[in-house]
């Protein structure tokens, strides 16, 4: 749930004994039968932002029945699963990331019966359903919080409470911790006469996982949805799960140049990446495995250092999200930057049968077409397809949706609202959350209502799924993504060796090889002008190869033969050859 800008301002976490060392992790999956149960291998997972996907009742907000009506879209794409951003009961202060009941569906999305219908219909189609799990905090409207305020046991310890610091007779927060949403991470509660911690908005009090009773409640909630058809979870903001038990001030970064209320002023050694987090994750892994049946996936969101991310593999996360394409690289990054980042990830994965993953986009960061430019909108999806492991795309990637510039008076993202009119554009997540563009009818076919919770991008008249599905546009973003998702099942893509090559200063190459098989080859031109290259010599590939797929703006037809010894790469083009 963190934006790119917030990620960039977070200091690298340094564990200096602020928390106990985690338990010894389990080994990687090793038995063929165990690996076979991991249905997500060599596939793509599709993220849905439910408010913006499909509105079935005309209220301008997407819902579960709308998703049910579009399940065949995922079948047509051939993704293995879809992941739903939060659909639980919520006041919607942070659009579902402030949960008021972990075992109820919010009425704006539908009912538990609707969720049951969704999982049943998805499973009939061979699709898995992944829920967004938001364990760091609840809404302050959760019944637990009301009881905690009144010190009713055991709820009195469900949240992180601390006495005020009194200086010269004046009440102050317990320490200098700052919220991701700017300002102090502490909020005074007059009834309890204590401060509570909120690492996000004031209406999102942090849960206290040092409470055994709270941990038990959350375990029961996890099982509640598994018993109703959920095939796994994406764990939100996992790095914030524990805080220093001594509540020490965090070190100040000298001369940061940031406003006083910005969390980028602090080194977050006491509020992020504490060791207890890994033990908690491992307990959830064991809990989900105890249910039996098909393996449940755990995907974890951790905007943190590479060594910290890699530890999640060993403690139960099947997919510790790799955000290099989302936050680590941008339209100023060079071919060598991509090579170093990709090599760094692949070389850091623990030994064993752990798999890589490549996140193309999500609901918290500018869309790939915005980050890299429309000419390179397919580039990261093509990398995610040819590189080993799992790809994750966000609704709209498959048609090249672009972020919409939302003016201040239409801004609804709380993170942006807290930042104010002068700073909101640096943190707003509204542009990437606009409604899905199904066709060129009213509200892009998303709703029968001309007013939607966020405005529809005006380019929907020409940029929409219906237009791209037409036979006349075989090189549309949609057809490209279908071919990319299918590529994951290619034997060379599944099992071949991987070489990431700096072909020239401005051309990145990826080669996948298997003995006695033709290689798969990706070439990316990082310049906005054409380049001619002898790829055959530099990459040790056949001279005559066929275009499997090329980026939408490249103008390269699919299926044509190319001479790789004298390869002309159009400006900003990406092409996969077989």
Globally, the shape reads globular
Q: Would you report the number of β strands?
A: 23
Number of helices: 19
Give the spatial strand order of the biggest sheet: 13-12-11-5-2-1-15-14
Contiguous runs where pLDDT drops below 50 for at least 5 residues? 2-17
Summarize the biggest pleated sheet: 8 strands, parallel
Helical fraction equals: 25-40%
Give the percentage of residues in beta strands: 15-25%
The rounded Rg comes to 24 Å
Instruction: Report, as a whole number of angstroms, the end-to-end distance.
Output: 38 Å
Class computed from helices, strands and strand pairing: alpha/beta
Mean pLDDT: 94
Can you characterise this structure?
With 578 residues, the chain is an alpha/beta fold. The protein is built from 19 helices and 23 strands. The chain has an eight-stranded parallel β-sheet. Strands 16-17-18-23-20-21 form a six-stranded antiparallel β-sheet. β17 (507-513) and β18 (520-525) form a beta hairpin. α13 (379-386) packs parallel to α17 (477-487). It is globular.
Structure in a nutshell:
With 578 residues, the chain is of the alpha/beta class.
Please render the helix and strand layout as text.
Layout: H1 4-9, H2 32-36, E1 44-48, H3 64-69, H4 71-77, E2 81-84, E3 88-89, E4 101-105, H5 112-124, E5 128-133, H6 143-149, E6 161-162, E7 165-167, E8 170-172, E9 186-189, E10 194-197, H7 212-226, E11 232-235, H8 276-290, E12 297-300, H9 306-314, E13 319-320, H10 324-328, H11 335-348, E14 357-359, H12 368-371, H13 379-386, E15 390-394, H14 414-419, H15 424-427, H16 465-469, H17 477-487, H18 491-495, E16 497-504, E17 507-513, E18 520-525, E19 531-533, H19 535-539, E20 544-550, E21 561-563, E22 567-569, E23 574-577
Parallel strand pairs: 1-2, 1-15, 2-5, 5-11, 11-12, 12-13, 14-15
Antiparallel strand pairs: 3-4, 6-10, 7-8, 9-10, 16-17, 17-18, 18-23, 19-22, 20-21, 20-23
């Amino acid at each position: 749930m963190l934006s790119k800008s917030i990620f960039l301002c977070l200091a690298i976490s340094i564990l200096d004994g602020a928390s106990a060392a985690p338990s010894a992790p389990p080994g990687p999956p090793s038995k063929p039968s165990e690996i076979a149960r991991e249905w997500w291998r060599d596939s793509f997972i599709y993220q849905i932002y439910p408010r913006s996907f499909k509105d079935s009742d005309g209220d301008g907000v997407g819902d579960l029945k709308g998703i049910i009506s579009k399940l065949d879209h995922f079948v047509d794409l051939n993704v293995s699963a879809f992941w739903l951003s939060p659909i639980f009961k919520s006041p919607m202060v942070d659009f579902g990331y402030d949960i008021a009941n972990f075992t109820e569906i919010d009425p704006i999305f539908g009912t538990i019966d609707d969720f049951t219908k969704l999982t049943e219909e998805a499973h009939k189609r061979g699709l898995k359903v992944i829920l967004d799990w938001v364990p760091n905090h609840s809404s302050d409207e959760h019944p637990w919080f009301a009881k905690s305020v009144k010190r009713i046991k055991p709820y009195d310890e469900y949240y992180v409470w601390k006495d005020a610091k009194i200086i010269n007779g004046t009440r102050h927060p317990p320490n200098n911790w700052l919220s991701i949403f700017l300002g102090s991470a502490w909020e005074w509660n007059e009834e309890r006469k204590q401060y509570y911690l909120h690492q996000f908005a004031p209406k999102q009090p942090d849960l206290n996982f040092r409470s055994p009773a709270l941990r038990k409640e959350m375990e029961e909630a996890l099982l509640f949805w598994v018993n109703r058809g959920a095939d796994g979870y994406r764990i939100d903001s996992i790095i914030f799960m524990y805080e220093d038990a001594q509540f020490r001030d965090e070190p100040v970064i000298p001369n940061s140049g940031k406003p006083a209320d910005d969390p980028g002023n602090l080194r977050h050694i006491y509020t992020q990446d504490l060791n207890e987090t890994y033990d908690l994750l491992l307990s959830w892994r064991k809990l989900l495995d105890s249910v039996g049946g098909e393996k449940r996936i755990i995907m974890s969101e951790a905007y943190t250092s590479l060594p910290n991310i890699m530890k999640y593999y060993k403690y139960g996360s099947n997919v510790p999200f790799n955000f290099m394409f989302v936050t680590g690289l941008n339209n100023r990054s060079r071919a060598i930057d991509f090579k170093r980042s990709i090599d760094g990830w692949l070389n850091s994965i623990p030994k064993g049968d752990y798999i890589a993953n490549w996140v193309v986009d999500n609901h918290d960061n500018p869309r790939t077409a915005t980050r890299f430019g429309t000419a390179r909108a397919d580039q990261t999806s093509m990398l995610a397809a040819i590189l080993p492991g799992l790809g994750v795309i966000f609704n709209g990637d498959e048609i090249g949706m672009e972020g919409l510039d939302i003016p201040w008076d239409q801004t609804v993202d709380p993170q942006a609202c807290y930042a104010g009119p002068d700073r909101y554009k640096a943190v707003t997540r509204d542009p990437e959350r606009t409604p899905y563009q199904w066709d060129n009818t009213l509200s892009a076919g998303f709703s029968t209502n001309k007013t939607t919770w966020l405005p529809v991008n005006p380019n929907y008249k020409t940029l929409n799924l219906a237009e791209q599905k037409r036979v006349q546009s075989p090189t549309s973003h949609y057809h490209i993504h279908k071919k990319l998702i299918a590529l994951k099942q290619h034997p060379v893509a599944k099992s071949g060796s991987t070489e990431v090559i700096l072909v020239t200063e401005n051309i990145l190459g990826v080669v996948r090889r298997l003995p006695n098989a033709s290689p798969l080859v990706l070439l990316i031109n990082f310049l906005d002008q054409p380049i001619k290259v002898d790829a055959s010599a530099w990459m040790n590939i056949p001279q005559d190869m066929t275009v499997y797929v090329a980026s939408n703006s490249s103008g390269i037809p699919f299926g044509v033969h190319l001479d790789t010894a004298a390869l002309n790469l159009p400006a900003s083009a990406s092409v996969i050859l077989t």
